Amino acid sequence: MQDVVLALLTKEPSHGYDLRQRLAAALGPLGEALNAGQIYVTLTRLEKAGLVVQEREDAPVRGPRRKVYALTAAGQERVAAWMAESAGPRADVAEFHLKLVAAAESGLADPLALVDARRRELMRSLAEAQRAALAHDTDSEAGLLLEGIALRLQADLRWLEACERAWSARAPRGEGEGNG
Amino acid sequence: MKRVVPRVMGRSSRSDTDGSPGWGPAAAAAGPALRAVGLTRTYGEDESLVWAVDGVDLDVPAGQTLAVTGPSGCGKSTLLQLLGGLDRPSEGEVWLGGRRIDHLGERALARLRRRSVGFVFQAHHLMHELSAAQNVELPALLAGASPRAARHRAAELLHQVGLAHRARHLPSELSGGQRQRVAIARALANDPLVVLADEPTGNLDSAATHDILRLFDELRAAGQTLVVVTHDERVAATADRVVSMRDGTLADDTRLDGNRGRRHGHGGTGLGGTGLGALLSWED
Ligand SMILES: Nc1ncnc2c1ncn2[C@@H]1O[C@H](COP(=O)(O)OP(=O)(O)OP(=O)(O)O)[C@@H](O)[C@H]1O
Ligand SMILES: [Mg+2]
Predict the structure, then answer these.
(1) Contact B237 A132 (CB under 8 A)
(2) Are A103 and A109 in contact (CB under 8 A)?
(3) Measured between CB atoms, which of B210, B232, B254 is closest to A138?
(4) Residue B19's pLDDT is what?
(5) Could you tell me the residue range of the domain that residue A72 belongs to?
(6) What structural domains does chain B harbor?
(7) Backbone φ and ψ of B4, nearest 5°
(8) What percent of chain B has pLDDT over 70?
(9) CA atoms within 13 A on the CB side of A115
(10) pLDDT, tens digit, for every residue of B134-163?
(11) Which part of the chain is the Transcription regulator PadR N-terminal domain (chain A) (predicted)?
(12) pTM for the model
């Protein structure tokens, strides 16, 4: 969650409330459990770690000047590293989804490039699982586990197809058009 | 005649020195088995013009198994038919075993297809009135083999696909998976240079798909060049290499062929990945 919050601050400094709105929009019903307190806990931790600082908003559109959180140089470095690193074999759907949202929002990475990289990564894992499955008796304990692993990886790959379609429709290549 | 080509990819891949005899990836020494250069196939004209295959360059080395994936309508079947000489390109070249085939005459092309290409389709296309064995004999007979040699070869192939005991059955007396295995045996009858399969597991459940995949794996281990068009990620994952098509072009090309030839895992992955162990977490 820390990385996601950092990434959402890349485009511009934000108030905790706005961050929560943005996350809630990306997560839909899955984000219902997310409360404002959790966002502030995360922001406080990031501040202690020197990754964000609080600033006064300079030109409020409406109402009083609020405190907004902004990335420090260290924070920017960490976001860039997170964007570049692979999601790992066990990353779940929501985690990768948020990474795509954050990539598009921050402009730090092309969501479609992330999808491609993820597809290769999952395909390699599936190749291992599927080959291992072929080498084991389907009814053996190990064979059964491998079957489950292969089916999950397959489901993840099918979801990536949907990601590719959706993100290619949203982001005309080359145009960094935010949707905030 | 065949040489072992270790195709190891990725950072942490270890060289595969324990290759059990008979299972090493093998490949003919000369050039690619299949080559497409600027391959293009259009259908229709004017405003209804469709670029089914649009400038595809592709080399399939001998002994490689290649999966072709991509959304419906992206041109996979068209590409496969061009590669196998079932269809002619609008532009570009197709080379099979070092020989250009796209401008061969009809008869020469038909002869070449029969001898050098084995096709497997989603619908098995077996002859209904012929037994499994007769179906498998047919291509050899058409290519001029003696009835005895054809019979012998068919028996051998049916044994290889695990259907020796079904040799005398009609297709209608076989399950879908069994029929598809007969179709694969038939495709192999003339020791083709390449086997081209279009959705070979499209109608099969996961157990029957497993059987086909085991069979493909044996073919791969024996050095058979194989191109499989598939929507099934699990089928694609068993190939040495996966290309994805988009709108008639090749959009992605991924190698999956680290650590091939290993039939029984001893840990390690050779894929440059993190290994299956990484899918399991002992912490908490
Ligand atoms: N004989 C034909 N006449 C006209 N258009 C055709 C013909 N065959 C294919 N097409 C068109 O060419 C494109 C590619 O078709 P193709 O069958 O190669 O796709 P595919 O990737 O195999 O799809 P699927 O996964 O659904 O089998 C499609 O737009 C299709 O409508
Ligand atoms: Mg097709």
Answers:
(1) no
(2) yes
(3) B210
(4) 34
(5) 1-85
(6) 61-85+105-269 (3.40.50.300)
(7) -85, 125
(8) 82
(9) 21
(10) 999 999 999 899 999 999 999 999 999 999
(11) 5-80
(12) 0.81
